[in-house]
Structure formats: structure tokens, C-alpha cells
């Protein structure tokens, strides 16, 4: 029987003994505050396995080495350096006890691009020329389709009014100087008015807040929740709010600009200097007069120079949270800095409108003491608000969770980077890095780690830089991303249909990322939207197969008690000869209701014939005895079934770039 994901374009034939198999390849490394492009090619072939007898062998190591009878382990804290995870590692398992369900399925929408049906795609085109999302585009039909696909939360990137090259003077909004704006649309992270949304999202810009609130009401009515940006580290170089509540002062309004640093200032300054436009900045919009900023403000990425480079976050100004950066980062938190108070006011303003959570941009560039204050103050009034931190320093993970009060953190430098190396088949790539992630970085906070393989900062999967233009090549990594622990999963719009991001949009120049600075039509995503039908009517057959995989994966995750709520047991440490410890990764997820076995082959070309050991400690953790045979029932669209003797190794044949998933049951 041919598997449902069998495509007409075949890279190679994959035969699987148990569950699911797909092709794969990748690259790692992200850059901040820029955007890019990619290419599309898809192919996968999966067939059901021939009937075979299970060949088992005694796992003698369990009887000779007491350390391999794993029960429970005390895990190292994330701040400790660990070099023990290697081929000979005898390390134990991460046991996670869940109090609540953290398996959120987050869908990131680059908002100005998401609903745009215009296919003009003129380089450096305006909103009128190239099109832009309107609040009304996020309609009931679209939301129903997203809900049915499996998402629980919509992260709408770029809602808040930011600096732009669009002329909004008819609305009483001053023009932004083009030389300090990135792209015709502008950067979503150069906030111009924290109490407003971008006027060009509204059908009637004068009633933009009414339209935003109506959209939010539709989101909730359709059983979804909405996450929006909190950009606390920096604002646009010229910040002016015309929508702020009465008695609220603008950031910087009362600053003493003669001082580089003062605890009560909102910005940092370079006294007696004039800001200079970086060399290489060429605006597509005519400049009427030179940009004047005196004294110059410090740029958002902590650049204390009046002349930042074009690669700096020159379009933003750094906010001051009471940290004297040039004086040994001395802190001045008493009395509470005004920036703290103003930013908490902003968060409460949006929470009061019904926003369910905040994705906090570059959270670690803001002191953790502020986050403790902010999350506490917001949750006093809005206790169900979630906070997600964009963070890249594993040494600070526990601090930002346990002190800062964050619910979730980006798992970028851990799991994302490890999986990308494997998919890309880097010489140094090893699945041992996956074990290191949960051991050293996220062990007791694995439920707090937001996992992903794409977002607006990372290159698209379907690019030469990542998966060599084959979006199916990442599927084993995607299964691990979705199922390793109980924490949330995020998918970037267009990822599920293989968006290639290979256009030169304007400020963005085909760097394998989808632009966040330009007005543009995202081709693969538009094919799924199908002019507002949201039925995938313009997708190619390969794109449909890819989207079907993602949809089935989300259904599997949402319907699996073990994945959503279960404990995790790493099986790597107990494997013997013939098991490729660099390319094969095995683990168990289990609750009282369900026990699942995952075996992943990250080798791009080689079939794996392995004898898989499940130690006594794992059987005990799952509540099984060692005396009776078990049934291994294929999951995730698979119908294969095996019988396993707990005292013997399980013989498995795993195709290249594949994942097999079994539910373990008592044999009746």
C-alpha cells in the first residue's frame, strides 16, 4: 500500500518498518532585524513496509552495568558547564511533571504580508502599489481554517504603529524621515506610537482601533488567542504618540538631553553630537531635508556612536531602564525608573483590550528586574496573560523564567541550531546535541521552551541556505521540534506550504528570509489563500502534500496525551553497537493514558538497521512490567504493528531521514 504522502516527484524510495518517513537537509544561524528570501523544491516517497519477523537480541548491557538501569536523575542546572554527554554517556532522563498544558500551537503572522492578495510585487512598492493586509482580511473563514489546522494562538507581528515611508499626514501623523526607516513599510520593531496600530491596516484609517478590536473579537469568537509584540528595548528614532491615554507622557518627553545617562531619562544620549545617517543608506523615497537629531540617541543594539553602520539597528533608539551601560552597567532601580512605569502602562493598555499575550522582542537586552516588575503588575489585573521572551543566552534562561516571570522562552541556540546542523548534514552535526539541550539548558524548564524551525529572523526552510530547496528534508527535525517536550510549538506563515523567500523586495535583498520591511505578496502563502477562499486552491501538488503533513502533525500533537502532557525519557545512553549515536535519536513520551516511542534517523542517505534497547528504568517509568510482551502499534497515519519482548532489543529498519512512532501497549 502506498502511503498517503507519496508524491509524483520522487527523490528516493523510503521503506519504513513502523511509522513515518520523509527526506531532509539544512543550515543554521540567524541574524537580527533583517529579512530575506528562499527557493522551493519538494519531493517525498513513503511506502508501507513488507511483513517481516521481529529479530531481537538480549540486551546484555542491562545485566552487566547497573548504571544502565535508569530510574530517575537529578539534572544539572543550566548555568553549569557539562561535557559528559558523548558517545559513552550514561546520563539519565529528564522527568517533567506538568501542572498545566503548555503545548500551545502558535502561528506567527507577519501581519502586513499575511492577508495581502496583491501580486504586483514592485520592488520598493508602496502599500497602494503592492498591497497590504487589512484587519478585515482576518475574517471568520480564515480564522476557522486556522483553528481547524490546529493552531491555538496567533502571533500577529507588526500590529503596533511603527516608523514608515507611507505618507499619513492626512491623519495628523507626521512623516517619518526616510533615511531612518528600513524599507517602504518600515521595521515592525521601530515603534512610533505604542498606543496605536498601523493606520494602513484599516479600511477606514480614522477608525483603525475599532477595526482592530473587531478583529480581536473575531479571533476570540473562533476559539483562538492573540499574541502581539512588546518591543521594550528600543523605539523609532522619532517617537510620538497621538493615541496615548490622557495624562500619559511620551517616551523621552521629560528627558534631560544634556546627560548621556540619567536614571529618570527614557533614552541614552550622546551630548553635543549630531546623528549621522549610516554610509550606504539610499532611500527609495525622495528626501525633502536632512535628518536632524541633536543630540544623537544611542542606537537600539547598544551602539554608543552618533554614526552607526548600516548593519546596526540605526532606525531605533535604545530605551533606558536604569542601567548605566558605560559605567560598568551599574543599576539605578530605586526609585522605579519612569521607563518601567511607562512600559507597564503600555502592556496593561493592550491587555485591557483583550490581547492574550506578548512576544517580547530582545527581552534579555532589558534587565530581568524590570520583567519581574512588569509580569507581576500585568498579571495582577490580567492573570492569564502569557509572556514569551526572545532570548539567546542559555545562562539566563532560568533567571528570565524564575525571576523575570516569563512563561516561555525561544529555544533557538539550543534545539533549533542542533536540528538545523543535522538537517544540513554538517560534519559536526550530532544528535548528542539534542541530549545536551535538555540536560544543560532546558532540563527542568523544558515546558517553558518555545520550539520552532522558522520565524521572521531565521532563513526559510525551503532555501539553499537551509534545506537545499527541499522543504520535505526537514520533516524529521519538525517531528522532534513538535514532540520532544511539552512546551509550545511555533510555525511561521508560509512554512507549511514551502515558501521560498527568493525575492528582492526592496530593503530586503533575497537573503532567504521573508521581508518584514517591505510591502509584498508572499507567493506560496497567497496560493493557499486563493483570493480569500483559504482552501489552497492555487497550491502545487507538492505544496498540498507538505501542508497535509503539517496539518497531520498538528492533529497528532493536539490529540496525543503523551505529547501534550507526558514525561520524557531519553534512550540514547543505553544503546549499544550498531546504533548510530550521531544520527539516530530515540526517546519515549508517556503518561498514564499513553506511551509513545520515537526513533529518528537524521542520516540523509543511509538506512539504519538497529537493535533498540529500552532499559528497565524506562519500562518502569511507563508503568510496564518486564515479564509480558508488548505491542508496538504504528502511529501518525501508520498501520504497522510489532511485538516486543521488554528483555530483548527491538530490531528496526529505519529509512534515511525518517521518523518512526509507536504507541506501546500491553499485549492482550
List keywords for this structure.
disordered N terminus, 21% helix, 27 strands, 668 residues, seven-stranded antiparallel β-sheet, alpha/beta, single chain
The outline comes out as globular
Strand content: 15-25%
Give the helix proportion (percent range): 10-25%
Number of helices: 15
- How would you state the average pLDDT, rounded? 87
Distance between the termini: 27 Å
The stretches of 5 or more residues where confidence is low (pLDDT under 50) are: 1-98
Structural class: alpha/beta
Trace the largest sheet across and list its strands: 4-5-8-15-16-17-18-19
Please outline the major beta sheet: 8 strands, parallel, barrel
Spatial extent as radius of gyration: 26 Å
Number of strands: 27
Overview of the structural elements:
The chain is α/β, with parallel strands linked by helices and 668 residues long. Helices cover 21% and strands 17% of the residues. It has 15 helices and 27 strands. The strands form eight sheets. An eight-stranded parallel β-barrel has the order 4-5-8-15-16-17-18-19, surrounded by four helices. Strand 21 and strand 22 form a beta hairpin. It is globular. The protein starts with 13 loop residues before the first strand and ends with a strand.
In short:
Helix 6 (338-352) packs parallel to helix 7 (368-381) and helix 9 packs antiparallel against helix 10.
Give the secondary structure arrangement, pairings included.
Layout: E1 14-15, E2 20-21, E3 46-47, H1 61-64, E4 105-110, H2 111-114, H3 127-130, H4 140-149, E5 153-157, E6 160-162, E7 191-197, H5 208-221, E8 225-230, E9 234-236, E10 269-270, E11 296-297, E12 316-318, E13 323-324, E14 330-331, H6 338-352, E15 357-360, H7 368-381, E16 386-389, H8 397-403, E17 408-410, H9 412-423, H10 432-441, E18 449-452, H11 475-483, E19 489-492, H12 523-529, H13 541-559, H14 561-565, E20 567-570, E21 584-590, E22 595-601, E23 608-612, H15 616-621, E24 630-634, E25 641-644, E26 650-654, E27 658-666
Parallel strand pairs: 1-3, 4-5, 4-19, 5-8, 8-15, 15-16, 16-17, 17-18, 18-19
Antiparallel strand pairs: 2-27, 6-7, 9-12, 10-11, 13-14, 20-21, 21-22, 22-27, 23-26, 24-25, 24-27
Helix pairs in contact: 6-7, 9-10
Amino acid at each position: 500500500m502506498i502511503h498517503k504522502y507519496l508524491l509524483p516527484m520522487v527523490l528516493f524510495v523510503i521503506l519504513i518498518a513502523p511509522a513515518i518517513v520523509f527526506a531532509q537537509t539544512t543550515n543554521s544561524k540567524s541574524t537580527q532585524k533583517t529579512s530575506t528570501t528562499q527557493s522551493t523544491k519538494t519531493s517525498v516517497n513513503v511506502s508501507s513496509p513488507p511483513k517481516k519477523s521481529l529479530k531481537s537480541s538480549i540486551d546484555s548491557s542491562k545485566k552487566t552495568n547497573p548504571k544502565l538501569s535508569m530510574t530517575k536523575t537529578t539534572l544539572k542546572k543550566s548555568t553549569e558547564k557539562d561535557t559528559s554527554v558523548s558517545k559513552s554517556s550514561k546520563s539519565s532522563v529528564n522527568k517533567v511533571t506538568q501542572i498545566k498544558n503548555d503545548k500551545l500551537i502558535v502561528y506567527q503572522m507577519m501581519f502586513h504580508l499575511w492577508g495581502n492578495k496583491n501580486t504586483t510585487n514592485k520592488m520598493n512598492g508602496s502599500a497602494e502599489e503592492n498591497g497590504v493586509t487589512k484587519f478585515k482580511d482576518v475574517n471568520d473563514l480564515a480564522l476557522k481554517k486556522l483553528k481547524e489546522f490546529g493552531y491555538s494562538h496567533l502571533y500577529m507581528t507588526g500590529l503596533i504603529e511603527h516608523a514608515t515611508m507611507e505618507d499619513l499626514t492626512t491623519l495628523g501623523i507626521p512623516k517619518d524621515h526616510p533615511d531612518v526607516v528600513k524599507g517602504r513599510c518600515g521595521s515592525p520593531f521601530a515603534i512610533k506610537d505604542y498606543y496605536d496600530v498601523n493606520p494602513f491596516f484599516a479600511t477606514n484609517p480614522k477608525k483603525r482601533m475599532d477595526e482592530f478590536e473587531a478583529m480581536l473579537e473575531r479571533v476570540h469568537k473562533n476559539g483562538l488567542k492573540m499574541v502581539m509584540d512588546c518591543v521594550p528595548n528600543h523605539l523609532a528614532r522619532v517617537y510620538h504618540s497621538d493615541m496615548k491615554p490622557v495624562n500619559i507622557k511620551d517616551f523621552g518627553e521629560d528627558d534631560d538631553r544634556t546627560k548621556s545617562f540619567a536614571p529618570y531619562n527614557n533614552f541614552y544620549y550622546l551630548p553635543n553630537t549630531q546623528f549621522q545617517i549610516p554610509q550606504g543608506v539610499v532611500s527609495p523615497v525622495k528626501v525633502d531635508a536632512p535628518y536632524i537629531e541633536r543630540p544623537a540617541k544611542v542606537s537600539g543594539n547598544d551602539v554608543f556612536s552618533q554614526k552607526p553602520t548600516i548593519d546596526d539597528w540605526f532606525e531605533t533608539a535604545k530605551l533606558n531602564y536604569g542601567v548605566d551601560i558605560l559605567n560598568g552597567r551599574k543599576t539605578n532601580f530605586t526609585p522605579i525608573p519612569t521607563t518601567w512605569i511607562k512600559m507597564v502602562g503600555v502592556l496593561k493598555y493592550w491587555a485591557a483590550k483583550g490581547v492574550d499575550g506578548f512576544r517580547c522582542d530582545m527581552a534579555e537586552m532589558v534587565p530581568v528586574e524590570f520583567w519581574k516588575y512588569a509580569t507581576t503588575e500585568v498579571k495582577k489585573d490580567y492573570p492569564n496573560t502569557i509572556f514569551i521572551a526572545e532570548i539567546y543566552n542559555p545562562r539566563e534562561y532560568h533567571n528570565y523564567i524564575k525571576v523575570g516571570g516569563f512563561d516561555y522562552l525561544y529555544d533557538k541556540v539550543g534545539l533549533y541550531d542542533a536540528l538545523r546542523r543535522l538537517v544540513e548534514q554538517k560534519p559536526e552535526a550530532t544528535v548528542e546535541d539534542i541530549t545536551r539541550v535538555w540536560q544543560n539548558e532546558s532540563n527542568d524548564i523544558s515546558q517553558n521552551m518555545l520550539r520552532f524551525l522558522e520565524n521572521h529572523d531565521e532563513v526559510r526552510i525551503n532555501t539553499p541556505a537551509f534545506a537545499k530547496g527541499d522543504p520535505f528534508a526537514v520533516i524529521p527535525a519538525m517531528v522532534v521540534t513538535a514532540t520532544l517536550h511539552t512546551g509550545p510549538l511555533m510555525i511561521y506563515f508560509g512554512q507549511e506550504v514551502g515558501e521560498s523567500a527568493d525575492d528582492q523586495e526592496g530593503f530586503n535583498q533575497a537573503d532567504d528570509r521573508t521581508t518584514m520591511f517591505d510591502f509584498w505578496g508572499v507567493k506560496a502563502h497567497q496560493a493557499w489563500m486563493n483570493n480569500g477562499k483559504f482552501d489552497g486552491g492555487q497550491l502545487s501538488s507538492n505544496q498540498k502534500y507538505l501542508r497535509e503533513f503539517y496539518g497531520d502533525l498538528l492533529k497528532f500533537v493536539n490529540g496525543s496525551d503523551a505529547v501534550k502532557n507526558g514525561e520524557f525519557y531519553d534512550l540514547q545512553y543505553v544503546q549499544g553497537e550498531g546504533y548510530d549515536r550521531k544520527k539516530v535519536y530515540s526517546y519515549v513520551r508517556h503518561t498514564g493514558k499513553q506511551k509513545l516511542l520515537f526513533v529518528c534517523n537524521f542520516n540523509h542517505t543511509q538506512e539504519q538497521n538497529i537493535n533498540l534497547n529500552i532499559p528497565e528504568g524506562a519500562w518502569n517509568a511507563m508503568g510496564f512490567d518486564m515479564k509480558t510482551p508488548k505491542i508496538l502499534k504504528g502511529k501518525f497515519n501508520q498501520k504497522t504493528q510489532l511485538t516486543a519482548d521488554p528483555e530483548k532489543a527491538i530490531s528496526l529498519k529505519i529509512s534515511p531521514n525518517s521518523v518512526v512512532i509507536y504507541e506501546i501497549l500491553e499485549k492482550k
